């Protein structure tokens, strides 16, 4: 494999988690939760109300591990609607027919995509779900939208579905599911890497619907919703995964398969590695228009006439 070369080719970037949160232990972090925090049992009870609501799916009894029942989860708001369309088009071109749940963060996006919904493509309005603590604040920042995904993941896992979370600003070049299913017995979660190797990027994240993973997601929600310190979804997850109390088996997906945007869109990296890539992620490219321009330049913007 090209892993060594890929790592060497990685552009110099600022360390994404130099702060103390990366080495802090979970009990210490949880001890710092605000007084108005709620217990993990109360949080579980609150979130389980979502299973009865409009997000409900028939509960699946897992009878074996293969093939698992999984849902691809993604979220969008009106700023990312065209990027969402491009992502859907990339799946259509792969001729994969997987169940997708799209969480719409505003009414406009909901009515735009709900017209196309069917049994394989569910479109849900995010305000239909109960979101705890800080996650319930209705602020339309990107980070807030990203943090709320933890609640959607939890709800799907509790319904017996594995979840594949995919950022909307991705383009699927090859179907990634066979990579996961070929070693399904050996891991609990599969996740792309952030700017540091073995630093999780919950932009592409497969989770098994098993108790220790559900518990991890519950802790993740608790930290994001109630911790005194404000974490990004990424830093909170990194902290949890480094905690000795969390015992999930993690497979970090190689950069040669799931590169950073700063790798894929770097000309020399692209020349050497583009052929091995499964998922292109348009991160670190600025806001919508810059992403679209870069996708277009690399022939992965599919929405232009004749593309
Ligand atoms: Mn992204």
UniProtKB/TrEMBL annotation:
<dbReference type="GO" id="GO:0016757">
    <property type="term" value="F:glycosyltransferase activity"/>
</dbReference>
<dbReference type="Pfam" id="PF03407">
    <property type="entry name" value="Nucleotid_trans"/>
</dbReference>
<dbReference type="InterPro" id="IPR052636">
    <property type="entry name" value="UDP-D-xylose:L-fucose_XylT"/>
</dbReference>
<protein>
    <submittedName>
        <fullName>Putative UDP-D-xylose:L-fucose alpha-1,3-D-xylosyltransferase MGP4</fullName>
    </submittedName>
</protein>
<feature type="domain" description="Nucleotide-diphospho-sugar transferase">
    <location>
        <begin position="100"/>
        <end position="293"/>
    </location>
</feature>
<dbReference type="InterPro" id="IPR005069">
    <property type="entry name" value="Nucl-diP-sugar_transferase"/>
</dbReference>
<dbReference type="GO" id="GO:0005794">
    <property type="term" value="C:Golgi apparatus"/>
</dbReference>
<keyword id="KW-0808">Transferase</keyword>
């Amino acid at each position: 494999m090209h892993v060594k070369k890929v790592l060497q080719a990685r552009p110099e970037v600022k360390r994404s988690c130099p702060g103390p949160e990366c080495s802090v232990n979970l009990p210490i972090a949880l001890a710092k939760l605000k007084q108005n925090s709620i217990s993990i049992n109360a949080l579980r009870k609150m979130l389980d109300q979502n299973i009865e609501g409009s997000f409900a799916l028939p509960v699946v009894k897992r009878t074996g591990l293969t093939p698992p029942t999984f849902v691809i989860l993604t979220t969008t708001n009106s700023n990312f609607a065209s990027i969402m369309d491009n992502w859907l088009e990339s799946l259509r071109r792969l001729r994969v027919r997987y169940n997708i749940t799209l969480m719409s963060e505003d009414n406009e996006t909901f009515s735009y995509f709900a017209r196309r919904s069917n049994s394989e493509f569910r479109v849900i309005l995010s305000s239909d779900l109960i979101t705890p603590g800080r996650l319930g604040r209705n602020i339309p920042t990107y980070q807030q939208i990203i943090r709320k995904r933890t609640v959607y993941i939890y709800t799907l896992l509790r319904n017996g579905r594995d979840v594949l979370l995919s950022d909307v600003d991705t383009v699927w070049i090859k179907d990634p599911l066979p990579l996961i299913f070929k070693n399904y017995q050996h891991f609990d979660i599969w996740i792309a890497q952030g700017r540091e190797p073995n630093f999780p990027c919950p932009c592409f994240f497969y989770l098994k619907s098993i108790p220790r993973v559900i518990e991890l997601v519950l802790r993740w929600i608790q930290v994001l919703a109630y911790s005194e310190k404000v974490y990004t979804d990424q830093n909170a997850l990194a902290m949890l995964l480094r905690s000795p109390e969390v015992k999930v088996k993690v497979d970090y997906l190689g950069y040669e398969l799931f590169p950073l945007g700063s790798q894929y869109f770097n000309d020399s990296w692209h020349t050497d590695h583009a052929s091995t890539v499964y998922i292109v992620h348009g991160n670190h490219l600025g806001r919508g228009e810059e992403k679209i321009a870069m996708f277009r330049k690399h022939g992965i913007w599919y929405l232009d006439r004749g593309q």
